[in-house]
Predict the structure of histidine kinase.
Amino acid sequence: MFQKPSMTRKLVVAITSVVAVFWLVAMGFGILIMQDEFSEIFDSGIQETAERLLPIVIDDLAGRDAGDALRRPAEKAASNREYLVYQVRGRDGQILLKSRDAPAEPFPAPLEVGFSQNDTHRIYTAGTADGSFYIQVADSLDNRREAAIEGGMALFFPILALIPASIIAIILVVRMTLSPIEGLRDDIGTKDGGNMVPVDEAGLPVELRPIARSVNLLLDRLRAVLESEREFTANSAHELRTPIAGALAQTQRLLAEVPPSLSARVGQIERSLQHLGRLAEKLLQMSRAEAGIGVSDEKTDLFPVLQVVIEDIGRSALGAGRIVLHAPDEARLERQIRPDAFAIVVRNLLENALVHSPSGSVVDVYFGTDGIRVVNESAVLDQPTLAGLTRRFTRGPTQAAGSGLGLSIVKRFVEQMNGSLALQSPATGRLGGFEAAVRL
C-alpha cells in the first residue's frame, strides 16, 4: 500500500538529503585540503630533517674510516618502525651511512638538492657546498596515504552519527513549525452543516491567516445559503400544506353531497389528495435532511422531544392507544442535535411502525442513554429486504399505504448526527417483529 503524501515526510527527507549532501561535499573538500596540507607538512619535515642531519653526519664521518661508516649505525637495534629513512652518499653515489630501515641500494634519486619522488617514496636531497657529501631523507608514500585515510575517517564517522541525530532534530523542528497547519486542518475538518463557527485566526502565523480568513468568508456564505434554504423549506412546507388541506376539505364536503353514483370517484380523489399530502410532507423532510439541519452547536436534551412527538401521534387515529414508552427514571439524552431534526426521525420511525404493523397492535419505544429502539409486530424479513428499506422509494412486502421515504429520511438525518441506524428482524428477544435502533 502506498502511503499518502505528507508535507512533514517530504520536508524531513529533503532537508536531511540536502544537509547530508552538503556535509559529504564539504568533507570531500576537507579531505583534499587536508591531504595537500599534510603533503606540505611532510615535505617540510623531511627537508628540515635532512638539513639538520647533514652537518652532524659530516662531523661523524670525519672521525671514522670508510669501513666503519656502514657498520656502526646498524649495530643499534630498535623495535619501532622508522617513518623517515636516510642515506648518506658520497660524490660517486656510494652509500656511506644509512638508517636502520633504509634500503641497502641507493635511492633512485639524483644527487641534486631538492625533492624527487618515485612510486614508493618522497625524497629530499641535501648536500655540502663542495658536493662531496649528500644526504637523502625519504618518506614512504604509504605513510602519507595512511594519514589521509585516517583523517578522512575522522571526518566521516562523526557525520554518520550526525545524520540520524539531524533527522531527529529536523523532525522535531518541522513538526513544531507545521503544528499551526495541523491545528488549522483539524479546525477546518470539524466544519459541517451544524458547526460553522469561524476559524480562530488569533494564534495563527501570518502565512496562514489569509487561509483562515478565506475559510471564514466561505463559512459565512455557506451559513447564509443554508439559512436561506432552511427558511425556504419551512415556508414551502406551510404553503404546500395549506392548498392540499383546503382541496382535501372541499373533496370531503363534496363526497358528502354527491349522489352515490359519484361517491366512488370522489373517494378516489380524497385518497389521492391524502397521499399527495403525505408525499409532500416526506419530500419536504427529505429536503430538510439534505440541507444539513441535523446537528447543532449546542447540546439539547432529546427526551422531552420524544415525549412531545409520542403524545402528538398518540392523539391521531393511527396511533391512539398503541404507543408504549419504556424509559428509565430521570431519563436524559443530551446531544448536539437540533430538536426539530430529532423530532422528524422519531415521527418517521413511529409512523413506519404503526402503518406496517397489524391494526391495534402495540408499538414499543425503548429510550436509553445511547439512543432509541422502536419495535413493532410484523412478519420476519430477510436480510436483503432489510438492507433495501433505507433506499429511497423502496418498500417492503406490505399492502399499507406509504411513499417509501421514511427510513431513508431517518438514515440521512442519523448520518448527520454522527449516529447509526440498525434494522433487525426478528426484533431483539422476540420470535418475530421488526426493530429500528438509532444509536446517537
